[in-house]
Specification:
heterodimer, A: alpha+beta, 3 domains, 5 strands, 38% helix, B: alpha/beta, FAD/NAD(P)-binding domain, 2 domains, 5-stranded antiparallel sheet, 17 helices, 22 strands
Chain lengths: 224, 535
């Protein structure tokens, strides 16, 4: 016999099996989800959720698709949060300290309360990556924020109105485009292809009958 | 600590006991004959009772799975509704249907080519399979590799069935796709000198798998999304396309849209239309769990089919060898192939390896099914059974810290349930992962219906009858850009005639004549997971 727990979706009580995730428990209760449900695997950040366990003080945040229900859980989903996304031309901006000041000046109003880090559904050190962004240390900001799914819970908890996920996105793009070392073998290969260096060899291959291609495939040399 | 059953714990001990020996003696690769045998006997594509013959439409006479047949021959959502095509709510050059990697690449490229572009998506931009692709993206950009070697790997891996000219495009435009993404700011794993860190995937003969840790798709998707927003391309979210609109010359010229929440009907007029609606895992073919996102219901195939476009290889699906089999909360979720690229082996309940870890996906999945169903060497789980994927081997091979650095998402996914994949193996079973087939296109990305383009997983024929790891992230970029380029170019000369939905009525007539009285509305749009309360 499966064990049931009492959970409260938007304040209304339901009894659901204790093995379910919050998302599946909502469906068990009868909700046909449209918002607040995307990849169902913890990557898209659509199912940001806040909850409090009855009798406890702490307000917790999670992804509904990744979190099991608990007895006395009061759940409110956060299917949308108005993050601020500044528009910029990636070709024109440069990885300077000023760019953060221009696009996201509110990061300098951080009061160091650490609410962002405490609420992160991915367990990231959010306040730390914002500190890196303030100092123009884009590589560190990019690394520290890399697992961010942009669910927006951190921003919902921020008294300074910072849109942390968007700040980190900017840092990652700046790092990926301007700071990460260039890949010489990639550019060389693109050049070779543009020169037509591989046209003949592939066309020869394409024009072979399947029997011959099977032979080639089954005996091809495989890198160790 | 995760609560395994007694039986599972005993089996796990056996896996640990044989680890050292297995590391020394790798399980041999199969011969071509052995592969064919394991596929025929075990792969779900060969289960005849799961299929039926289409009675109506461009692929009349072809076999597809029952679940897809029900939708392809389903009930249109527009018939019987009063739909006014005379006053479109949107009027654009290029309409992109779908908000994943293919749709975003197409929109960015069309926009860069000067077109007035609009995206519509039934969820949000980025709620897509692209976001969940963990392992990586292939491109032959290293000294010991070449596009021709990539071609042979993919052609053989797809059972020599790929459309050759599409595969040519895929492999020759792969390096440029990586370069394009790099210039947009995607953070690929690189050595300090800029050399790409690349690994093998199942069926590759060169290490050409580029990655962004195990968030490869997420990193690509969020960058593309950011670029779409930077370009101010309108993204109409929570809005599904429910029918393609054609003009009196039979050319595609827009779509009937429906707001997912309010059900309001809206009309989009467009000179060209790009279908980038992705796959079909949420149809749960043959009862399989799926690694796919919530909206993967083959909508694009239905829209295009009813509009008259032919499908190619719609009968073939990819079952990813390693979906999570335990814990039940993540049943079916993807365990990236990169886990095997980094050295983890597949092991049965007695602690024995039974397949070379990096055979192609269809062969590996079939071997796991054989190990469980035919040989009864599976480990029982809440939802069925599974075999072990011996993750601690990764740390033994690559050194301590390899898992945290290279597959952090996997570590997190299992860690949430008290399973430390650095120390314990995990239980896996094949999961419905990818739609190998789809809408037939020519090299310009156009379907059989003029001005109707297709990109991404909705396309059929690029990979043949099986797809290699890392060729899907690649195809959404290459064919997304391709469709964006040709659709925006074509839009410059298109004159739209009288907009109509006559083809929908004609299709209904064909259904009537074939004696089909469809019960399901299609496109399906979303799965229904709500428990049916007893009245």
């Amino acid at each position: 016999m499966e064990k049931k727990v009492n959970v409260y979706f938007f304040g209304k009580k339901y009894q659901v099996p204790d093995s379910l995730t919050i998302m599946k428990a909502m469906e068990y209760a009868g909700y046909q989800l449209i918002r607040g449900c995307g990849c169902r695997n913890g990557f898209c950040g659509a199912c940001a959720t806040i909850y409090r366990i009855h009798g406890k003080q702490e307000l917790k945040a999670c992804l509904a698709c990744q979190t099991k229900v608990e007895e006395g859980m009061y759940v409110a989903t956060l299917p949308f949060f108005p993050l601020v996304k500044q528009v910029y031309d990636i070709e024109k901006i440069k990885p300077t300290e000023q760019i953060m000041m221009q696009l996201y000046p509110e990061i300098y109003s951080c009061i160091g309360c650490n609410a962002c880090t405490k609420s992160c559904t991915q367990g990231l050190n959010v306040m730390q990556y914002i500190a890196y962004a303030q100092r123009g240390e884009f590589e560190k900001c990019a690394e520290e924020s890399f697992d961010c799914v942009m669910c927006g819970v951190c921003s919902a908890r921020c008294p300074a109105g910072i849109s942390h996920p968007q700040v980190a996105e900017l840092a990652r793009r700046l790092y990926g485009k301007y700071i990460a070392p260039e890949c010489k073998h990639l550019e060389k290969r693109v050049q070779e292809i543009n020169n037509g260096d591989y046209v003949k060899i592939i066309e020869d291959l394409m024009n072979k009958p399947v029997s011959e291609l099977k032979e080639l495939y089954n005996n091809r040399d495989i890198e160790k | 600590m995760y609560q395994y059953t007694e039986e599972q714990i005993i089996s796990m001990k056996k896996v640990e006991a044989t680890r050292a020996e297995r590391m020394k003696n790798l399980f041999p690769r199969m011969s071509a004959e052995e592969k064919e045998k394991v596929l025929k006997e075990n792969h779900p594509d060969y289960i005849e009772s799961a299929y039926e013959t289409l009675k109506v439409g461009p692929n009349k006479g072809d076999k597809v799975l029952h679940e897809l047949a029900d939708l392809l021959q389903g009930k249109s959502r527009v018939l019987g509704k009063r739909i006014n095509l005379k006053k479109p709510d949107y009027d654009v050059d290029v309409l992109v249907i779908g908000g994943g990697g293919a749709g975003s690449s197409a929109a960015i490229t069309a926009h860069a080519n000067g077109a007035n572009v609009m995206m519509v998506t039934k969820l949000r931009i980025g709620d897509a399979n692209t976001m969940m692709a963990e392992g990586g993206i292939q491109a032959a950009d290293k000294e010991n590799d070449s596009p021709s070697i990539h071609y042979l790997d993919a052609f053989g891996g797809g059972h020599f069935a790929a459309k050759r000219e599409l595969l040519y495009k895929l492999v020759t435009e792969a390096p440029d796709a990586i370069l394009w993404l790099s210039k947009l700011g995607v953070m690929f794993d690189k050595a300090p000198d800029g050399t790409m860190i690349t690994t093998h995937g199942g069926g590759t003969s060169r290490k050409r798998m580029h990655a962004c840790k195990d968030y490869s798709g997420a990193e690509i998707m969020r960058t593309l999304r950011d670029e779409v927003l930077n370009r101010n391309i309108p993204v109409v979210d929570f809005t599904a396309a429910i029918e393609i609109i054609k003009d009196d010359e039979g050319k595609a010229c827009g779509a009937v849209l429906m707001n997912m929440e309010t059900k309001e009907i809206l009309i989009a007029r467009a000179k060209t239309v790009i279908i980038a609606t992705g796959g079909a895992g949420r149809l749960h073919y043959q009862g399989f769990p799926t690694s796919n996102h919530y909206g993967a219901t083959a909508d694009g195939l239905v829209l295009a089919y009813r509009a008259g476009a032919k499908l190619l290889y719609a009968d073939t699906l990819q079952y990813h060898p390693t979906g999570a089999a335990e814990p039940t909360q993540i049943f079916g979720a993807l365990v990236t192939e990169k886990v095997r690229s980094l050295g983890a082996q597949l092991v049965n309940k007695d602690g024995n390896a039974f397949v070379y870890s990096l055979e192609t996906r269809d062969v590996t999945a079939s071997s796991i099914i054989r190990e469980c169903k035919q040989r009864h060497n599976g480990v029982k789980t809440v939802d069925g059974e599974g075999v072990w994927l011996d993750t601690p081997m990764i740390e033994l091979i690559g050194g301590e810290g390899t898992i945290e650095k290279r597959i952090p998402a996997m570590m997190r996914m299992f860690g949430k349930y008290g399973i430390d994949i650095r120390k314990e193996p995990i239980l896996i079973y094949p999961t419905l992962h990818y739609q190998n087939g789809g809408i037939d296109i020519s090299t310009d990305g156009q379907s059989g219906v003029e001005n109707l383009y297709v990109a991404g997983e909705a396309v059929g024929g690029i990979h043949g009858r099986n797809r290699l790891m890392g060729n899907s992230l690649l195809d959404i970029i290459v064919f997304g850009r391709n469709a964006g380029k040709y659709a925006s170019e074509k839009a410059k000369t298109v004159k739209i005639g009288r907009m109509n939905l006559d083809h929908v009525k004609a299709f209904k007539k064909e259904l009537d004549e074939a004696g089909i009285n469809p019960v399901k509305f299609s496109p399906q749009l979303l799965p229904n997971y709500t428990r049916q309360p007893s009245i």
